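Onboarding guide, step 5: your first structure request.
Type a short instruction followed by the sequence, for example:

Predict the 3D structure of this protein.
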Amino acid sequence: MNGKVLAIVAVAILAVAGIGTAVVLLNNNNNSDDSEITITDDSGKVITISSPLTNVAVLNSNVPRAMLMLGLGDKISCYHYSGTFNIKAEKDASNKLGTYYTPSVETLLQKGVQAVLCPVYAMTLYTSSQKACEEVGIKVIRLECNGASLNSDLAKISKLFGNPESAVKTLNEYNSNSEKITAAITDKLKAENITLENYLFAFAARGAVYNQSSTLNKNFEPIFKQNVTALTNLSTDGVSNPVVGEGSEGNIEALHAIETQIDNFFIRANSKEVTEAEYLAHFSNFVGADKALTGSCKAVDNGDVYVINNALASGLYMPIGLLMIAEKVYGIEITVTLDFGTEKTYTGLDDLSSLISDFQSRYYQKDLASGNLLLSQISSAGTTTSTLAMA
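The system replies with structure tokens like these:
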């Protein structure tokens, strides 16, 4: 591999209605050597490869979901995540890595892995493991594939594997449909002259609240006034701040000081928790006299606490999650027409299950099943007042 300076990823990122991004893929790498590919990963590191990837290891679940959506699942030779994605690598138990933060470099070499694709933050390689990989020529490429970086990360993955025609087609269609959903939300809010409200968003698995500089927060900015952590002295360096368990004491006090300004409180359920009992348990972890929020919280007092299915809180279904939340919080009905090869129109929450099913059939077929709760609205007494579930 030579050391020439290469052009950064050839993608165009378009802002649509203030929400999300659309990515139009271009097959021209703008290099003097067309076989070379360069991207900047989510850690800010410039990655250059001499030819498209054909054999990778993946950590977490976001990257393999993205690869499966783009028809690239057969490029995965070893992996680490719970559950199953129905990929070829799962047919041999030896392809499953022992740990996600310190995978065996010897195993990676035996499998002929060219690169490890992993997130920047959660469930990712230790720095020492990255160094060990790089010392033997295995690239480490950090892509979150969720939140505000989802669309651009999908484009980077497609490019890393040579922008196959089918992947480009799928991604451009997905981006177009995502744009239509997010534009429909903001157009409706504008048409109804709705005054935006404050909110707070928590991640149940970490017992933490997302700060206002997180990528997830940036998806919510156009449909809410602000994340109330902007009114506190909570750290904005990381993704979130703990409010349950060790290190939560000062953070809880900071939230108590501004909780009368929280109009809506959202809790992101854990990945496999899809029942009412599990959703109510998340409520009890965050709300109470000695918890992150008390009965003095405006959202709690008014019954505007929502537990959201993990699949709709980030990742491929995030646009649908935004649609669901906007309709529920503001009491509006939104109509959107999408194109899954043929156009189809969806109106209101009554069509939500159909919309999700069509998304799953077209892009990724394994996240939500019949009967799974999508959202529960919970009263100050900790009882469910309304629910949305897959039909």
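Each response can be followed by summary notes, for example: Residues 192-389 form a domain with the Rossmann fold fold (CATH 3.40.50.1980).
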